[in-house]
Structure formats: C-alpha cells, structure tokens
Amino acid sequence: MDIFSPIDGSIIAEVPDTPPAEVASAIGTAEQAFADWSRRSPIERGRVLRRAGELMLEYEEQLATLEARNLGAPYAASLAMVRRAAGSFIYFSELADKVTGDVIPVDGEYLTYSVREPHGVVAAVVPWNAPIIFATKKLAPALAFGNACLLKPSPETPLSALQLESILLEAGLPEGLARVLPGGRATGEALTGDPRISLIVFTGHDGTGKAIAAAAAKNLVPNALELGGKSAQLVFADAPTNRVVDGVVSGVFSNTGQACIAGSRILVERGGSEQLFRGLAERTRRITTGDPLAPGTELGPQTTLAQKEKTDRMIRNAVEAGATVLAQGELPTAPELAAGYFVRPTLLTDVTPEMEIVREEVFGPVAAVTTFTTEEEAVALANDTEYGLAAGIWSTDAARVHRVAAALRAGTVWVNTYGVISDRVPFGGIGRSGYGREGGQAAVELYTRHKAVWTSLHRDEATADILL
Ligand code: NAD
C-alpha cells in the first residue's frame, strides 16, 4: 500500500497489505502466545508494559514526526498525542495487578468467588484520525489484563502503529502476542470474522461498526464500538468570557476537525450571541493553516484526499441548502503545499435542524453555528441527533450546568472546557455513536470476563444440595 503525506500529496512509504491467510496465521500464533502471557503474573505483565511506555517516550520525537507527516497534525499536537499514548501503557501497566475478584456470600455451604480472566485473542480495528492514540488505547488494556491483541490500523495511517509494534518487542513482549496487521477492509474482515477471536474492539465509522457488529454476531463474540459523533457545544450568555471563544474554536477545529468528539454544532444563547459570533468569526479567520512541521501552525491538512473532498463538498452543499458562511480561515500560500489536502476552517450559520451539515459528521474543520432562547430549547437542539458521543456546556451558572449535563444524551459532557480525555475516565457513545466504554474500570470490564467458582464445603456428600 502507498502511504501518502497529506502535506504535499507525496508518497512517503510503502507498507505491505496483510492477506487473509497471513491474518489467519497471526491469530494462530497469538493464541499460542496468549496461553503463556495470560498465565504470567500481572506484576510481570505490568513491568513489560511500563517499559513499552518508557520506550515510546524515548522514541517520542521519531513517533511524533511520523505522525505529523502521515496524519498531518501539527508537530506539537502530534507530540502531545505520542505522550498521551505512552501514558496509556504506563497507566495500564499500573492497573494490571489491581484487577481483583470477590468472595461472594451465598446460601448453603460453599466458598464462592469470582475472578476476572482475559478473553483470549482480541481483534482491534482502528481509524486514521489519531493512529497512535487508538493503537495504544486498545493494545495497552488488552495486554495488561492478559489478552493477546491483533491490531489492524487504517490503511491510510499505519506508520506509527508499525513502529509501536517493534517498540513492544524491544520492551520484551513475547513474539506474536501483539501484532500490527496493516491492510484495508479485507484484512479487517478476515480478522473480525475469524471464530478464534474472543473480543472485538472497534473505533471508526458507524457504517463499518454495523458490519463489525454483524461479524461479531455471527460468531457470538462480545464487542465494543466507538463510532462517530455530531456533538453540540451549548454556549450560554453567562459563559466564562476569558476562554469561551478559544475553547469553542479548539473544540471543533482540533486535529483539523478529524475528531469523533468534534463539537461541530455550536448553539449560542440569543442574549450574548452577537458578541460571541463576532469573537468566533474573528478567531476562525486568524487560524494559521499550514505545514504541520512548521512552528506556529495551528491547523494541518486533512489526512486524506477523500476527506478533503468530502469536507469541501459538505460546505458547498450547506451553502446551496441556504446556510451562510460566517467566517473562513485562509489556505496556506506556500507553493510546496499546493498539492496538500488543506481546507479552509469554516463556520456556517443560518442553518436549520434538517440540513445535512447539522445532522451528519463532516470530520473536517467545519461547524454550524446557531442560536437558542431557552435552556429547554438548547437541550432539545443538542439532543436532536442520532449520535450521542459528547457535548459541551459553557456557563458559569452551577445549577444550570448540572441540570443540563443530566439532560444531555451523550457519553461525555464537558463543562467550560472541551475535548479533554483520560485513560482513567470511561469513554464511549450512545445510539449511532456506538456502545461499550473504554477507560479506567470500564476498560477492566471490557477486556476481562468474570468467572465464578463454587466450591462445596460439605463434609458429607449426602448432605450436599445437588439440584437434580
Ligand atoms: P472506517 O470505519 O472507514 O474505518 C475504520 C477501520 O475499519 C479501518 O481500519 C478500516 O480499514 C476498517 N474496516 C473497514 N471496513 C471494515 C470491515 N468490513 N471489517 C473490518 N474492518 C473494516 O473509519 P475511518 O474513515 O477510518 O475513520 C473515521 C470514522 O471514525 C469517523 O466516523 C469517526 O467519527 C470515527 N471515530 C470514532 C471515534 C470514537 O472514539 N468514537 C474516534 C475516532 C474516529
């Protein structure tokens, strides 16, 4: 597979596609590696994973440069992602030996306890928009709790995950336990459709999520789906003035809008709306779009040409449907970036609830800005979506913040901030945004299963209550 740089459209690497036969053989090897790894002490597993996290930090510049060149995210943002990804290994390395079971009181003379055990070989399939984050978000908990894990990165951005695979080996992970299998849909189907897979964890588009859920259903395999979003940011007139504009803008344009959590519906309370509209428009026009490796760049290109074309098309469709461009940033002018996949960061207004731009995920730096009059109307507009991944509330009224947070139909709600995520906190969606939660105890639940062990304490078999 040719791997392109979105900065100038050049080919920066060639990566072999993994054919289904090789996927099948990787699953066989992973099963063998699992048999050994799952029996190792969690403390030892934690040690290896900690080393992996430390090695990622040693290689952080290399990984961040790869990510900036392949994904197109500014270097500083790429470096922050690499550090967060390394943090996943460190966090889960420390959680590995804290997974405990219960002794459960029951009727009758039994010692009954539950333990958590790993599932087996986990299939992880991830998208192109934050490759290193998604790779570690799945690999770190899967491995920490004793599973094997086969990761299929996106065919567009596999480079950082491939380097991660060699880092894991250098850290001392057994050969074959955690393989990265680059490829497209056929590789993904071979992996998720194999009956030897014990858990499927997927991040990506909801259409693909349905195909994965169908594959999982065929083999009765548990699965978790992190899908798209069309998240709202509710800006009340009493929003904290010192950070609302920067916060809302970064909530939608971060990573060139290629974020499932992008707060791409901006709902502004009428009272303060004129001033806020002006602030948002002015900030959007000032966004520096350019080479991700150049200092000062705030917004890189879209990662793929197809995504650039989709974003441009959705802006055009919105305008044709009656939306007005409130503000647009500039395209970079450097001739060497002429073939890059850049789009203008764009705020649209005069939108109506049925428009495509309000209902469908763009995955580019585009937001629809509209107004509301009452709190009830704001909540109704925010919840008027098939998705349910995230939402943001900007207000300094504490009672309102908690009322609205309770009423929003979303897996995550941010208040006076947007987009912060931690491995310690459960994350996942509702409805078209998927099901299942990752992070903290939710990750323990996802990557392990309960086993109950009942032991009779009866001295005399005749008195044991065997229920025939
Ligand atoms: P995608 O669904 O097209 O692809 C995701 C992965 O699935 C890729 O690796 C792809 O090769 C693979 N794939 C495709 N068809 C498959 C099949 N039938 N069986 C198995 N694997 C298959 O998504 P994308 O375009 O790479 O990423 C963008 C989408 O991801 C957006 O919708 C975005 O919102 C979503 N996303 C969600 C989250 C989240 O945490 N909720 C995070 C990031 C991105």
TrEMBL record:
Biological source species: Leucobacter soli
Keyword tags: Oxidoreductase
PANTHER family, per database record: ALDEHYDE DEHYDROGENASE-RELATED (PTHR11699)
E.C. no: 1.2.1.8
Protein's UniProt name: NAD/NADP-dependent betaine aldehyde dehydrogenase
Similarity-based family: Belongs to the aldehyde dehydrogenase family.
Active site (catalytic residues): 226
InterPro entries (alphabetical): Ald_DH_CS_CYS (IPR016160), Ald_DH_CS_GLU (IPR029510), Aldehyde_DH_dom (IPR015590)
A single GO molecular function term of this UniProt record: betaine-aldehyde dehydrogenase (NAD+) activity
Domain Aldehyde dehydrogenase: 2-453
Top-level taxon in the UniProt lineage: Bacteria
